[in-house]
Automatic annotation (TrEMBL):
Residues 449-469 are annotated as: Disordered. Belongs to the glycosyl hydrolase 43 family. The keyword Signal applies. Keywords: Carbohydrate metabolism, Glycosidase, Hydrolase, Polysaccharide degradation, Signal, Xylan degradation. Residues 1-19 form the signal peptide. Pfam families: Glyco_hydro_43 (PF04616). InterPro entries: Glyco_hydro_43 (IPR006710), Glyco_hydro_beta-prop_sf (IPR023296), Glycosyl_Hydrlase_43_Enz (IPR052176). This is Family 43 glycosylhydrolase.
Length: 642
């Protein structure tokens, strides 16, 4: 997995990566994992239309309703009026909590009939906990309050809280945009509302929508009197009251508009500003890079529904699948890719089928840390090889290992039945040494042996590092072997305790000059296959090759065409390497589990692409003569394994 010992080269890499990721650690949500969109909206002024509805989009341009365009939340259960309007949805700072705020109102009771908003919180976009906040009854001095409209939420980093902002009108005055901070549980407001923004013209303003770009907050709003329309004001401090107003109208139509909303297109520097042409019953979409100049893109947009005043949230594939599992996949929605199989940055995947749990597990390197500086290991479980559950951290070097606290890389695992009970022996790299831990279950808890199993270079090895372990149990002899090495391929027989190496069993296996690291051994129909990675994990040309042997100790015969997998430039897939292999129990069915540059961002990161990687699975097949068919890496991935 790693290429060179720490040196000036690596220091330069670390310096470079810090320029890309200031914290040096993985983000809570990687932008590359945002692959779809959720449109949250209502549909009209009839009571049955004043409810939250969902639609999904693969690209931000084409939208398909869910649940037959029926409500996904019952307004009567969450509101004080029996209806809700103007839904705004926000992803929380933790990447996995969602906040929605709504106008608590039914229009048939009049436009000056509501005094409340609805606050909702969810961790899955399907199940929501709600509360009603009535401004008039909660805060004194609001006896002449006429209406509370279009609440929205933004995280105020300066305050470290979620700000809810909304327009209010009191008798005799204009609509003004106010704000208050939500409490920790997002069930109430911490204090009475304060003024957030009033245009210098003192005209009424409603339907505020705030987005941050490059440290500047952009407030899009509708000026409600004189000449109505969409305008924008900016500030670098949300509660300062210091706003710079743009006098230009931003809508690209002469039709009446409201409900402006802005979202950033995934994997792009472009934004979409959309607004509700409410007299026409449709939206207009415009595109921009600077949030100042907008181009109409209506001809690029399609919807199979007619939304009113809503918002659009970029979502991950896992979130998309969760929505589809609940409300069904629209008939015309395009295929959903299954690679990468894990969201986030992960590399060096080890795959295991557990006979104890009848599930599959992936044990990766936790990636996304500057210079491969991760310090913990996680595992993921699945019963179909497509949908994976994060089982959490299984070893934290800083807490669980006494002999090393850095560079947690390239683990491997084996399931053994000892005295009738399953044991899981987990071998891992830490600080360029190899350790071993054991557990009774594939998800742990794992207990470290207390010392490194491999800490020095084997005799005869020139250079390289003591990393990238692979554990293999020979089905013919029942013996278990440990392979390791960067720059050399070493092997040693494990003692029955699986915690120590048999004395004088360590040897080097000769490989050609394509060998770099990542040994992985499998057995099929009398042949031992040795797979390894060539080149550098930071190189787009990182790939997997193989050799064959009649013994788990070599020597190797290297086929002429021995590439197992390499990049697919047409699909912008690069650096496919450091693999493991899964054999489906009781079948001659095989899968290659490997990492690659994160798509689509990794190829643009330079050397940092080598520690911002993701895990993928594609099918591994053999020719009639036993040679391996070259695997073509895909975005589609594999189908559900039944």
């Amino acid at each position: 997995m790693r290429k060179f010992q720490l040196s000036i080269v690596l220091l330069l890499i670390i310096s470079f990566s810090k320029a890309q990721n200031k914290s040096g650690v993985p983000p809570v949500l990687a932008d590359k994992d945002l692959t779809a969109y959720l449109f949250v909206y209502f549909t009209g002024n009839a009571v049955e239309e004043e409810a939250v509805r969902y639609a999904i989009s693969p690209d931000g341009y084409h939208y398909y309703h869910l649940n037959d365009n029926k409500p996904v939340i019952d307004s009567k259960l969450i509101s004080s009026t029996g209806g809700v309007r103007d839904p705004h949805i926000l992803r929380g700072e933790d990447g996995k909590t969602f906040y929605m705020v709504l106008t608590d109102m039914t229009s048939n009771k009049g436009w000056d009939s509501n005094r409340a908003m609805v606050l909702l919180k969810s961790t899955d976009l399907v199940n929501w906990k709600s509360s009603v906040v009535n401004i008039q009854t909660t805060f004194s001095g609001n006896e002449n309050l006429k209406r509370v409209w279009a609440p929205q939420t933004i995280y105020d980093a300066k305050a470290g809280k979620y700000m809810i902002y909304f327009s209010m009108q009191h008798a005799g005055g204009p609509d003004i945009i106010y704000y208050a901070y939500a409490n920790k549980d997002f069930t109430a407001l911490e204090s009475e509302p304060k003024v957030l923004f009033v245009p210098k013209s003192k005209n009424a303003c409603i339907d505020g929508d705030i987005i941050e770009k490059d440290g500047v907050y952009h407030l899009f709003y509708k000026t409600e009197t004189n000449t109505p329309g969409i305008k924008v004001a900016t500030t670098t401090d949300l509660t300062s009251g210091n706003w710079t107003e743009n006098d230009n109208y931003l809508q690209q139509t002469k039709e009446a508009v409201e409900g402006a909303s802005v979202f950033k297109l995934n994997h792009s520097d472009e934004y979409i500003l959309m607004y509700d042409m409410y007299m026409k019953g449709k939206y207009q979409f415009t595109k921009t890079k600077d949030l100042e100049h907008f181009t109409v893109i209506d001809n690029d947009i399609s919807m199979d529904f007619h939304p009113r005043h809503g918002t659009i949230l970029p979502i991950t594939r896992a979130e998309l699948k969760r929505l589809i599992a609940k409300w069904g996949k629209p008939a015309n929605y395009p295929q959903i890719n299954n690679n990468p199989v894990l969201e986030g940055y992960y590399a060096d995947p080890e795959v295991l089928y557990s006979n104890k749990t009848k599930k599959y597990y992936i044990y990766p390197t936790s990636d996304g840390f500057d210079g491969w500086s991760g310090y913990y290991f996680k595992t993921f479980s699945s019963d179909n090889l497509v949908n994976w559950k994060d089982e959490g951290v299984i070893i934290d070097l800083k807490k669980d290992v006494s002999w090393a606290n850095r560079n947690a890389w390239a683990p491997c695992i084996v399931e053994k039945k000892i005295k009738g009970k399953y044991k899981y022996f987990y071998y891992f790299t830490a600080a360029q040494k190899i350790g071993v831990a054991v557990a009774d279950n594939p998800t742990g808890p794992f207990k470290d042996s207390g010392k490194a199993l491999v800490s020095s270079r084997p005799e005869g090895a020139r250079g390289g590092q003591e990393i990238d372990p692979d554990v293999f149990t020979d089905p013919k002899s029942g013996k278990s072997y440990l392979y390791w090495g960067n720059g050399y391929m070493a092997v040693a027989e494990l003692n029955p305790d699986m915690f120590s190496l048999k004395e004088e069993s360590t040897k080097l296996i000769e490989v050609d000059n394509t060998f770099r690291e990542g040994t992985y051994v499998i057995y099929r129909e009398g042949t031992y296959y040795f797979l390894w990675s060539e080149d550098d994990t930071r190189s787009p040309n990182y790939k997997v090759r193989y050799g064959i042997s009649k013994s788990p100790l070599g020597p190797l015969e290297i086929p002429k065409d021995n590439i197992v997998i390499q990049g697919n430039k047409e699909e912008e897939i690069y650096a496919t390497g450091h693999n493991s292999v899964l054999k489906v129990p009781n079948k001659d069915e095989w899968y290659l589990v490997y990492h690659r540059f994160s798509y689509p961002t990794g190829i643009k990161m330079g050397d940092a692409g080598g520690f911002h990687r993701e895990v993928a699975i594609d099918k591994l097949e053999f020719n009639a003569d036993g040679t391996i068919k070259q695997v073509v890496p895909t975005h589609a991935g594999i189908n559900l394994l039944k």
